[in-house]
């Protein structure tokens, strides 16, 4: 019985240790007075993030964007860098996206015209 429990504990630890640093729950920077919580998880060989909760004017509200994908196919490029696409809810546009990850802080950018014009946000890990 001890061997089975030990094997199960080791399997769980290995799974947690194998998680990519981008995986988890992130809080977006406020955009047009609203912010969201985004769950980032694997989606094929990349990572995607869906809006799980939304907040405005200091309180939670039920945005029609809950469940929408905001981080799209972010592929790891090494050293905390990811590339893919990001969707901006306030204008319903999708941009070339890049992420620079450093521990529990994320710098996310959305760019147009091949990266000539970019907007950036700072996100923080919730858990």
UniProtKB/TrEMBL annotation:
Residues 24-125 form the DUF2147 domain. Gene3D superfamilies: 2.40.128.520. It comes from the Bacteria. InterPro entries: DUF2147. Keywords: Signal. Pfam families: DUF2147 (PF09917). The keyword Nucleotide-binding does not apply. Residues 1-19 form the signal peptide. The keyword Signal applies. Coiled coil: none annotated. This is DUF2147 domain-containing protein. It comes from Paenirhodobacter huangdaonensis.
């Amino acid at each position: 019985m001890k061997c089975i429990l030990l094997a199960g504990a080791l399997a769980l630890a290995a799974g947690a240790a194998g998680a990519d640093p981008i995986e988890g729950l992130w809080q977006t920077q406020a955009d047009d007075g609203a912010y969201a919580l985004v769950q980032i998880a694997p989606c094929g060989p990349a990572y995607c993030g869906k809006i799980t909760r939304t907040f405005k004017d200091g309180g939670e509200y039920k945005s029609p964007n809950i469940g929408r994908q905001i981080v799209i196919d972010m592929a790891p490029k090494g050293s905390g860098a990811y590339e893919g696409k990001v969707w901006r809810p306030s204008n319903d546009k999708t941009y070339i996206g890049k992420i620079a990850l450093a521990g529990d802080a994320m710098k996310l950018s959305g760019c147009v015209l091949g990266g000539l014009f970019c907007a950036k946000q700072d996100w923080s890990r919730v858990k």
